[in-house]
Structure formats: C-alpha cells, structure tokens
Amino acid sequence: MNDVTPLPATTTFRLGALGSIVTARFTERIGALGLKPKDVGLLTLLHDDGPVSQLEAARGMGVAPSLMVTVADRLEALGALRRLRDPGDRRRQHLVLTEQGRALLARCATTAQELDAELTAGLDERDRAALNHALGRLAAANGLPH
Amino acid sequence: MNDVTPLPATTTFRLGALGSIVTARFTERIGALGLKPKDVGLLTLLHDDGPVSQLEAARGMGVAPSLMVTVADRLEALGALRRLRDPGDRRRQHLVLTEQGRALLARCATTAQELDAELTAGLDERDRAALNHALGRLAAANGLPH
DNA sequence: TATTGTTATACTCTATAACTATA
DNA sequence: TATAGTTATAGAGTATAACAATA
Description:
The structure is a homodimer.
Chain A: H1 11-31, H2 37-49, E1 52-53, H3 54-61, H4 65-77, E2 81-85, E3 93-97, H5 99-119, H6 125-141
Chain B binds a DNA duplex through residues 36, 38, 53-55, 63-70, 86, 89-93.
C-alpha cells in the first residue's frame, strides 16, 4: 500500500493529460462559433451570476482585468453580451448576457455533450456515471461552477 | 434523457477545468526540482521506451523537434540524461536516461501521489478507485502511457 | 488619492522556417 | 538530395505596468 505508483498511473497525471486533450478538442469545435475557451468561461459566469462588472468578472474567473477587456470585446462583437455603464458609478461597465449569448452558451453545452459521448464511448454506463460523479465532487471542492 | 446538460456539469468541462488546476499545482511543485511539465513527459518516455533519438522522442511526445532540443538541453544540464552520438549515423543523438534522471522521475511520481491524496481527500475509497479506474480506461483509449 | 477600465509592454510556451552537419 | 539536430523567428495566450476617466 506504500509502493510508488508509476507516474502515468496517478490521477494527477491522467487528469492533466486528459484535460489537455479534451480542452484541445473543445477549443477546436467552439472555434467554429468564433469562441475561445475564456469566452465560454465568461458566458458561463454571466449565466450563473447575472450581470457583473468587468472587474468582478475578472476576479470570478481568476484572470487579469486586462484580459477581461479582450474577452468582453470579442463577446460584444459577437452580440453575446452588452456593456452597460453603471449610472451610479460611471467607471463601471456591467456585462449583460444577451439572448444571442444564451444561445451561444447552449451550443457550447451541446458540443460538450457530444464530446462526452465520444470520449466515454469505450466505458460502460456504470463507469461513465461513476466518473462524472467523482469529477463533480472534485469540481465542487475546487470552486468550479455546478 | 435528452435534456441539455448544463455545460459545467459535463465531463468535458470538468476534465478540462480540473486538468488545468491539477497541472498548475504539479508544475509549481516540480519547479522546485528544476523541471517543467514537458521535461517530465520526456523522462517518462525515456523510462518506458528506453534510449531513443531526439526525433523519435519528439514524435512520441507529439511536439516539434525544435522543442525537443530545449527540453533535452535542460534535462542534460540537470544530469538527468546524456546525449550519445550514434556511431552508425552521426546525425543522430540518442537520449539516454541517467540514474539521476531515474531519481528525478521517482520524485515526480511521489509528488503526483501526494497531489492525488490532497485532491481526492474529499472522496471515499470507492469513488477514488472508480475515478482512477475510469481515467485509466480513457488514458489508454487516448494513447497515454500506462 | 483610489478605483475601473484600457492600452502598452513583456514573458512563456510552442510552432514553422532557415541553417548546419551528416548521409 | 534528404535527414537529424539546431537556431532564428513568429504567434498565441496571458500577465504586469502605465495611463485615462471617474470617484
């Protein structure tokens, strides 16, 4: 029970390597929608947490405020969100998800579901459920959205 | 059964996000050994597949040959591998793992095990085993080392 | 003076292209 | 001429620092 597990057999190694593979696939597909991974992160955050300022969004995603400018610019150009100047504090821009933004997020969810099916095609229903259950626990424990 | 799963609840999203988190942690810790993630990939490949040329190593890792130069340079400077000129074809450099390289790889494996324990501290033994079992299946299906 | 958003700049990772030496 | 390795260069992604508008 105290043996050294070979590195490739660790959860850390597998999670890292598989995460990288899956992210590359997802990135390629959402590229067809004009989206990059961080865009999807912001769409998800706005969907879950409602309108927030750019700075709040940056903090919520754990990225620099300067990066939020770029991401919001791209989503605004796609019509996925609007910037609304806060009347009470004109320094703040509230990021508001549009119908178009909601539709884009839904298409991302569908894409992810398709990738799930392809990825886990070799697993039986039991393993598939156990995998997503355990990942859900880890996700929650690490502050990821539900 | 045909509902749209919310994006954050998909295996794709969770695997990508958790992979990124875990990789960041692993990267930070192996940094103390003077190693970067790609270095660990090469150490693993050399451990599993024995001495190979730089080009073979690059192909095996799916990276550009020019990147292999950088990675091999760093590992050579650490004394983790040696470059041996092939006498039969003096263009080729065989990358040979040293004892020091084996020791470094073992320390990486220990580090990964520690991270595994921290990461899955909130899971019961059942879920932990189910998770690593399912990940192992996916890893094998995607050509990762065992 | 402090804060929000923005722009300018720099750093990391990695790929492609150009080059050297061998074949 | 073709190939292994190397060096030069470029692009993507993201951070830090400087700046402008507003508080």
